[in-house]
Amino acid sequence: MITYVFDKKKAVPLYMQLYRFIKDDIEQGKLPSGTRLPSKRNFAENLGVSTITVENAYEKLVSEGYIRSVSRSGFFVEDIELPVSSDYGEGSCAKAKGEKKAPGLPVQEVDDIKYDFTSNMTIKALHPFSTWSKLTRKVMADKQDEILTVAPSNGIRELRYAIARHIWGFRGMNVNPENIVIGAGTEYLYSLIIQLLGRDKVYALEEPGYDKIAKVYTANGVDIRYIPLDENGIDIDRLSESDADIFHISPTHHFPTGIVTQVARRYEILRLAEERGDCYIIEDDYDSELGTGGKPMPTLMEMDRGGRVIYMNTFTKTLSATIRISYMILPDELAERFHKNLGFYSCTVSNLQQYTLASFIDEGFFESRIRRLRRYYAREKEVLIKELSRYRSFETATLGEKGAGQHILIYLWLRGKDNVDSIIKAKALSNGIKINTLSDYYRDKSEGTGVLVLNYSSIPIEEIPAAVKLLDEAIG
Q1: Does pTM top 0.85 for this prediction?
Q2: What tens-digit pLDDT sequence spans the chain (476 residues)?
Q3: Angle formed by the axes of helices 420-430 and 464-475, nearest 10°
Q4: For residue 414, what are the contacts with CB-CB under 8 A and spacing of at least 6?
Q5: d(Cα 231, Cα 426) in Å, to the nearest integer?
Q6: How far is CA 229 from the centre of its chain?
Q7: What are phi and psi of 109, to 5 degrees?
Q8: Which residues in 275-284 are b (16+ Cβ under 10 Å) and which e?
Q9: Which residues contact 102 (CB under 8 A, 6 or more apart)?
Q10: What DSSP designation does 178 have?
Q11: By three-state DSSP, how is residue 240 classified?
Q12: Which of 382, 323, 370 is nearest to 120 (CA)?
């Protein structure tokens, strides 16, 4: 039987290595036309790899025309007429004739990942395709003139009013729809805030934290201060000691720790902002709708009496990560400044999507979707915790189940061991599992070691047992 030796230290997935081995043998004539390749199961056993690895390699070879699949017979090498020279360098036919080779698309290599615990995507089965498409068709039929009319810089009126009604019902927040700004993702809104407040400001960020936020601020040339957390949220003493003018925090549900900032700490943060004068708080409320513990704690914007809070939220978690619609609510003074200084910007979300989302909210579909997602994620977390408890790898682990969200932390208590996180991630990846660790969210990677961060939103409930089994095999 054909035998190949894999280099498992390479970043190249095993199926890509196998694909290249077979492809090279075909092009070099070592596997002549008509040669029958081993069955997937036998080949996998002989090579010491998974059947899926062989299957993926065969599928790629079939798609490119190197081999063919014959029903009930197996896989055979295609009848390929190779060029005179198999050297595609200086001796190639194209160059010999003085012809230029047409540029092609680069081959995209995809890791052989079975379960991705780092993704925040929502599974396809939960997406409201039929409702969304029905509303889109209705908008296209009923609002043709509006779709082709330039929207205000802060978004169409219908969507801003729909959002205002939603957060009044969900949060009890009474906001002026004219203070709402719609944008294509929170990253875009961060850049607007920087222009609104000035690049001379110093921004305080929570650590650990979502590193994309820091990257956006750094790319915009602003100064950053990293403030650690304690059990009640951002460390108020360290924040007070810093020279930060802007506090970017996520008090309702911090990522990745899950810490919920308590009311007393929230008032301390508000008082500090007022004492500093020209100081603002960016309240990132990215997944508050998905909480399962009843009515969420009041937002900083609700508690604010000094016009210091910029409230931000997104539909990324509740609809889809690929529907790039987010919004921020500005205090009155900043809203006036936005319309005066930045009103020349065009809204970055298409009118069609905005009108569709407005209908989705106003007709009650969004509220129904939130209830469905809450039930689903609560059940999924139950199944995940139950499956983890079945394996010895997690017997001595502690589960961090703070807040809601779609992720949990697993404290493996392996602190002090050299390169423990990189070893765990590499072993998991070799077993088809992609994970993050808490240290990934610190600048100093020696902080937060031995803690897994498992985001389960992209994995169907029925596949959780298989995913946990593979994770146990990798860690155990």
Answers
A1: no
A2: 788 888 877 768 888 899 999 998 888 888 888 899 999 988 888 888 888 889 989 988 888 888 998 888 889 998 876 655 444 443 344 343 444 444 444 444 445 789 999 988 888 888 889 999 999 999 999 999 999 999 999 999 999 999 999 999 888 899 999 999 999 999 999 999 999 999 999 999 999 998 899 999 999 999 999 999 999 999 999 999 999 999 999 998 889 998 889 899 999 999 999 999 899 999 999 887 886 555 667 899 999 999 999 999 999 888 887 888 999 999 999 999 999 999 999 999 999 999 999 999 999 999 999 999 989 998 999 999 999 999 988 887 888 765 556 889 999 876 556 678 888 899 899 889 999 999 999 999 888 888 999 999 999 999 999 999 999 998 87
A3: 130
A4: 420, 449, 450
A5: 31
A6: 23
A7: -90, 130
A8: ebeebbbbbb
A9: none
A10: G
A11: helix
A12: 323
Query: Which residue in this structure is represented by tokens 């995913």?
Result: 467
Residue with tokens 């902002």: 273
Q: Which two tokens stand for residue 418?
A: 């050299």
Token digits of residue 18: 């196998």
Two structure tokens written together for 205:
């960020």
